[in-house]
Design brief:
By secondary structure, the chain is of the alpha/beta class. It is 30% helix and 25% strand. The chain has 14 helices and 26 strands. The strands form seven sheets. Strands 16-6-7-5-2-17-18-1-19 form a nine-stranded mixed β-sheet, with helices on both faces. Strands 21-22-23-24-25 form a five-stranded mixed β-sheet, with helices on both faces.
C-alpha cells in the first residue's frame, strides 16, 4: 500500500525504489543546483550563520547523480501524471537534455521562467541572471491540467472596461458582433437599423437585445455585445512567472532555510497539475513547502529528504502551520535508529538529532536545538520546563519565565572526556545555569568523576545522556 502523509528520511534513490509503479499524480523536485556557491543562511533569532553548499563539481557528475533518480521518478509517475524540475542557469541546459532522454522529447510541455529577483550586479559585463527554470513534463497526453488565471491589471481595466451599467454597477466592455466571414447570406440582415453580416442569427440577436446584452450607443451605431468584467476569468497564466516574489529575510513565511521557495509558487503548480485527493511527491523536500501547499489544497503527499534536520524542520512546519498532529495526521519515518548510522552523520545533523531525540527521554520538559552551528558558546540546545515550553510554542512573552531553561551540549565522540565537561561547566557558568544535559556516545571515567565533583563542590548538575539511552528509550530524566 502507498503510504501518504509521510516524510521519509533517507537517500531518495533508495526510498523511491520502495514505491510501486505509477502511484503518483504530480512530482515537483527542487534538487541541488550544482551552482558552485555557498549559501549563507540565518537560523532563528540568534542571527548565527552556517554555510550550505550545493556544489557537485563538474556538471556531468551532477547529471550522472540525478539521472537514476529521475528514472525512478518517471517510473512512479502515473500515465496521467505531471513532473516539474526546478533548476537555475548553471545546469538547466544539461538537465533539459537529460529529461528529454528520460521522458522522451514528446513528454516536454513547458519551460517556465520564474523571475525570482530584481536585477543585481549591474557593474558586471553581463546581463544579471535573475530567473530560475522550471521544466514541466508529462508522461502521457491525458494529463491533468487546470487552467489558471491572474486578475486583470488596473490599467487593463481602465483601458478596456470603461463602461458601467446603470442600476447594477457592473463594468463591461463592448464586443464586436459582426462576422469576419463576409460570405454568409443567411446571417446578413438589418438589426437596429444597421445591415451587416452578423455572428448570430436574427433570433439569437433579438433575444440577447431583449435581455440587455446588446447595446447601441447611439442611433445608427453598430450594435455591440456587453462583455461583463465579472464574467471574465482574468489573464491566463503563461510560461513567464514574474508575479511571485522570492522569500526575503524579513518575510513572515521565511524559515531561514536555504533555497526555500515561496508557498505561492507551489500552490500554482499543485493547483494547475493535480486535483483534490491526488498524490503529490517531493523527493528533495528541504523545508517542506511542497507538503505545506499540498496539505492546504487537499492533496495527499509524500516527502523525502536525506537530512534529519530538514525532516524535523518540515515536520515542525506541518505542526505549526497546518495544525497537524505528528503520529496521527502525518508520520515521520526512517530517522537514524542505530549508533552506527549516527556516527556517520555530519556534526550539525548529529547535534540536531541528539537535541530533538532527547525529548523521548525527558519528563516534563522540551528540548529545542540551536539554529546555529557556530558561535554557540558551548551550547547546542536548550531544555525548557513543560509549562514554559507550551507557552513558548504559543508565542507568548513570559518575561522572566522565559529565562527558565537548561543548556544542552552534544559531542559526537565515542567517549566524551574531562576537557569536554570542563568546557561545558564554563558555558553553564557564563549563562548562569545550575543544571544542564550532556549527550555523547559514552563518557570516560574522568568525565564521570568531574560531573560528580561539579555537583558536590559547585552545585552544577550535569546530566550525562548516552546515545544508546536515547535510542533504547528505557531511561527518563526529569527537568
Amino acid at each position: 500500500m502507498l503510504q501518504t502523509q509521510t516524510i521519509f528520511c533517507g537517500d531518495n534513490l533508495q526510498k523511491l525504489r520502495e514505491l510501486p509503479d505509477e502511484c503518483v499524480d504530480l512530482i515537483y523536485i527542487d534538487p541541488p543546483f550544482n551552482s558552485n556557491r555557498d549559501y549563507e543562511t540565518f537560523w532563528g533569532d540568534t542571527k548565527e550563520k552556517r554555510a550550505f553548499e550545493d556544489r557537485f563539481g563538474a556538471v556531468e557528475h551532477y547529471i550522472a547523480w540525478m539521472r537514476p533518480r529521475v528514472s525512478e521518478l518517471y517510473r512512479v509517475l502515473k500515465k496521467t501524471g505531471s513532473f516539474y524540475f526546478h533548476c537555475d542557469w548553471h545546469a538547466d541546459a544539461y538537465v533539459r537534455v537529460m529529461l528529454d532522454q528520460e521522458f522522451g522529447a514528446n513528454g516536454f510541455n513547458t519551460h517556465i521562467i520564474w523571475r525570482r529577483t530584481n536585477a543585481k550586479g549591474l557593474a558586471s559585463k553581463s546581463f544579471p541572471n535573475n530567473h530560475d527554470s522550471i521544466f514541466f513534463y508529462t508522461k502521457g497526453k491525458e494529463h491533468t491540467f487546470n487552467r489558471l488565471y491572474l486578475p486583470h491589471s488596473q490599467k487593463y481595466l481602465d483601458d478596456f472596461y470603461k463602461h458601467v451599467e446603470p442600476g447594477t454597477n457592473r463594468r463591461y466592455r463592448l464586443g464586436d458582433l459582426t462576422n469576419p466571414n463576409k460570405n454568409r447570406p443567411n446571417l446578413t440582415y438589418e438589426f437596429l437599423g444597421v445591415t451587416r453580416v452578423w455572428r448570430w442569427t436574427r433570433e439569437r440577436m433579438q433575444e440577447a437585445y431583449e435581455n440587455g446584452l446588446i447595446i447601441q450607443t447611439k442611433a445608427g451605431a453598430v450594435p455591440a455585445l456587453k462583455r461583463y468584467l465579472d464574467e471574465q476569468e482574468g489573464t491566463p497564466i503563461d510560461s513567464i512567472w514574474s508575479d511571485i516574489p522570492p522569500i526575503q529575510p524579513q518575510s513572515k513565511e521565511g524559515l531561514g532555510y536555504p533555497t526555500q521557495k515561496p508557498l505561492a509558487l507551489l500552490n500554482r503548480i499543485i493547483e494547475a497539475s493535480s486535483n483534490r485527493g491526488d498524490v503529490v511527491l517531493d523527493a528533495f523536500c528541504g523545508c517542506g513547502t511542497t507538503l505545506h501547499a499540498a496539505q492546504n489544497l487537499g492533496r495527499k503527499w509524500i516527502g523525502i529528504d536525506i537530512s534529519p534536520t530538514a525532516c524535523r524542520v518540515m515536520a515542525d512546519r506541518l505542526i505549526d502551520k497546518c495544525r497537524l498532529r505528528e503520529g496521527e495526521d502525518f508520520y515521520l519515518r526512517d530517522l537514524p535508529k542505530t549508533s552506527e548510522q549516527l556516527r556517520k552523520y555530519p556534526p550539525f545533523e548529529f547535534e540536531n538529532w541528539a537535541v530533538t531525540a532527547l525529548n523521548t527521554v525527558l519528563v516534563n520538559g522540551h528540548a529545542i536545538a540551536n539554529k546555529a552551528q557556530v558561535r554557540d558558546m558551548g551550547i547546542d540546545g536548550r531544555v525548557y520546563p513543560a509549562t514554559v515550553a507550551k507557552e513558548r510554542q504559543k508565542g507568548r512573552n513570559l518575561f522572566g519565565e522565559m529565562d527558565r531553561w537548561f543548556p544542552v551540549q552534544v559531542k559526537q565522540k565515542d567517549k566524551a572526556g574531562r576537557p569536554d565537561i570542563d568546557m561545558f561547566e564554563t558555558a553553564m557558568k557564563r549563562q548562569g545555569r545550575e543544571k544542564g544535559f550532556f549527550i555523547s556516545f559514552d563518557f570516560t571515567s574522568d568525565a564521570i568523576r568531574e560531573i560528580s565533583r561539579a555537583l558536590r563542590e559547585e552545585g552544577l548538575e550535569i546530566i550525562p545522556v548516552t546515545v544508546s539511552e536515547i535510542l533504547d528509550e528505557e531511561h527518563s530524566y526529569k527537568v
